[in-house]
Amino acid sequence: MIEPILLAFIFAKIKGYKIKPLFKTWAIYPILTFILIYLILEVMIFNGNYTFLKYTSTFHYLYLLTFIILIIKYKLNFSAIIGSIFIIIGSVLNNIVIAANNGKMPVFPTLSYLTGYAKPDSFIKVNDIHILGSGVSKLKFLTDIVDVGYCVMSIGDICIRVFAFIILFNTIKVINQTKKIMDETLKE
Q1: Per the UniProt record, which residue ranges are transmembrane (predicted)?
Q2: Residue 16 lies in a domain
Q3: Hey, which residues does 144 pair with through a beta bridge?
Q4: What is the pLDDT along the chain (188 residues), one digit of tens a residue?
């Protein structure tokens, strides 16, 4: 979940927007709180503590809901619609692969084995919808195959993360445009 935030910051910088004004608004802090909790959960997983893993779907849902604050405050209605389309596409893709694999989401860790995030026995310990992928996994290209070392994502997961990127980038853009207009007004 941190990837879309970092990408939004990088893309905003490339486009010439300042990121610092974003942190002057209270509306970003609920999202940052969830990212901090997410990082804590990731550290717990790295340490083999899977206690709170069963709550991740609820956590992801609440995390995405925190973006409503930015959507309302900065009137990002069009961005929210586009982002929501990506959430729907991602959810449909994930549901298709889960249905094709008897209610399970196959995971193909590679880099995560090297970083220690995934261990061969972790899928047995966790006992949720994720299973270790194999040659019998169906629709492999839609399963969790994008391994970044601390998380293994599917194409559907990436689509869902696009929502966060769109909202955050457009928030930075609106804040910068508003600041520019206010600065120009003060000069006159």
Answers
A1: 26-45, 52-72, 78-98, 148-169
A2: yes
A3: 107
A4: 789 999 999 999 999 999 999 999 999 999 999 999 888 888 887 777 777 777 777 888 899 899 999 999 999 999 999 999 999 999 999 999 999 999 999 999 999 888 887 777 777 777 678 888 889 999 999 999 999 988 889 999 999 999 999 999 999 999 999 888 887 787 76
Q: How many domains does the chain have?
A: 1
80 assigned to some structural domain: yes
Cα angle for residues 31, 55, 85 (degrees, 5° grid): 55
**Domain assignment present for 114:** no
**Can you give the residue range of the structural domain that contains 41?**
2-101+156-187
Is residue 141 one of the residues assigned to a domain? no
